[in-house]
Specification:
Elements: H1 8-16, H2 36-42, H3 46-55, H4 58-73, H5 77-80, E1 100-104, E2 107-121, E3 126-138, E4 140-150, E5 154-162, H6 181-217, H7 219-234, H8 237-247, H9 254-284, H10 288-295, H11 300-308, H12 313-336, H13 348-353, H14 358-363, H15 371-392
């Protein structure tokens, strides 16, 4: 058996070959064969990739635009509303909606509404309104109308649109006191939409803190928290809402009642999020980055807040978009039953409370119009939540 060895000239040549190491830092994404599109994808952050996937979900994007418009409108409700939400027009009780017209006798005369003629129906004991096309009441824009206090701080009287001098503008009709329903819906959106945000803030704080403690520590702490969650979830929500709302003193101011209802909704809705956070933390606490942070002396609060929670923050955002409508529906249901917000506070639930009488609804169906923004809001939040959930899924 012979062993082959390299010839002396070959060995000498191998020794003379230069050994070169590039001093430049290694960049795995700088390969020449990588296209700009691939480089853009591989270098993108998690949030940018979520945004790219969300943009492909057209329904979710449209829902987000609708919700953004609704939340922007509550910042200037006083400006958008034609009247103050407490303004009464005793001559136009239960007036039907007025339509906007552009043409009269074949001529373009601008946006206007037709004035009302009414008579008392002695058989049904109600006013019967008839549009009078000869009463042309042109709309005014960026005009001065009812006085208001902007966010309760700054007095003003500027409105986006106003009725003609001495005319009326009831695009959605009036209620039993002659108050404009459109103005009350715009004012009520501020309460109904913000109560969902504040309620979710309370719910998320409780769910993240309590669920994080259960998932990180485990053991008997986890057992106690899980039994507490099961007890809360065993109660039917609507009767529990009603019982807790009935505890609120009737002497409380509308502002205190608002915060009381918000806290009640937050104290009930945190359980599902708490369990989701707990299950995520049980899996993530065994990862190497969590162990490394623990060995470096990081405290549990820092490990949970800086390392574990950001790992599934996208899931929390998607959960929030699905929780907000349930909060708003909870307030609407309580106010509809007379156990939530009460006048003079105006919300969509308070407005629907006036439509409980079937006879009123049969005679004045426009009183049911406050349910339309509730339906639009719930659908928009659900579509946006579905889009965010799909965009946050790394396997899609």
């Amino acid at each position: 058996m012979s062993v082959e060895t390299a010839s002396p000239p070959a060995a000498a040549a191998a020794e003379r070959l230069p050994h070169y190491v590039s001093p430049q830092p290694f960049d795995p994404y700088s390969a020449e064969e990588m296209t700009p599109q691939q480089e853009r994808y591989y270098m993108a952050s998690q949030w940018r990739m979520m945004w790219w996937k969300l943009k492909r979900h057209r329904i979710a994007v449209a829902s987000g635009v609708i919700l953004l418009a609704m939340y922007l409108s509550i910042t200037v409700s006083e400006f958008l509303a034609p009247y103050d939400y407490q303004s009464r027009h005793s001559d136009f009780i239960y007036a039907p909606p007025q339509g906007i017209h552009l043409f009269h006798d074949g001529r373009l005369i601008g946006p206007y509404v037709a004035g009302f003629d009414y008579h008392l129906d002695m058989r049904d004991l109600r006013r019967v309104y008839t549009p009078n096309l000869r009463k042309i009441e042109k709309l005014r824009f960026l005009c001065h109308g009812d006085h208001y206090s902007f966010w309760g701080l700054v007095p003003g009287d500027l409105h986006l649109v106003c009725p003609a001098e001495g005319g009326t503008l009831f695009l959605l009709g009036t209620d039993r006191l002659g108050r404009d329903l459109l103005s009350r819906i715009l004012y009520g959106a501020r309460i109904s939409l913000t109560i969902g945000l504040v309620g979710v803030a309370v719910s998320f704080t409780l769910g993240i803190v309590i669920g994080g403690i259960a998932g990180y520590y485990g053991g008997w702490v986890d057992i106690l928290i899980q039994r507490l969650i099961e007890i809360i979830q065993s109660f039917p929500h609507l009767p529990l809402w009603m019982a807790l709302s009935a505890i609120l003193p009737v002497t409380w101011s509308p502002l205190l009642v608002y915060f009381g209802i918000t806290i009640i909704l937050g104290l009930i809705e945190w359980t599902h999020l708490g369990r989701a956070v707990r299950s995520k933390l049980l899996a993530l606490r065994e990862e190497d980055f969590c162990t490394a942070a623990l060995l470096m002396g990081a405290k549990p609060a820092r490990i949970i807040g800086r390392h574990l929670l950001p790992s599934f923050m996208s899931h929390l955002i998607a959960t929030a978009t699905l929780t907000i409508p349930s909060m708003i529906l909870g307030e609407t249901a309580l106010s509809f039953l007379g156990l939530g917000l009460r006048p003079p506070i105006t919300s969509w639930g308070v407005l629907l409370n006036e439509a409980q009488n079937i006879n009123v609804v049969a005679l004045y169906p426009w009183l049911m119009l406050p349910v339309v923004p509730v339906i639009v809001m719930v659908l928009a939040f659900n579509f946006l939540g579905d889009g965010l959930r799909d965009a946050a899924d790394p396997y899609r």
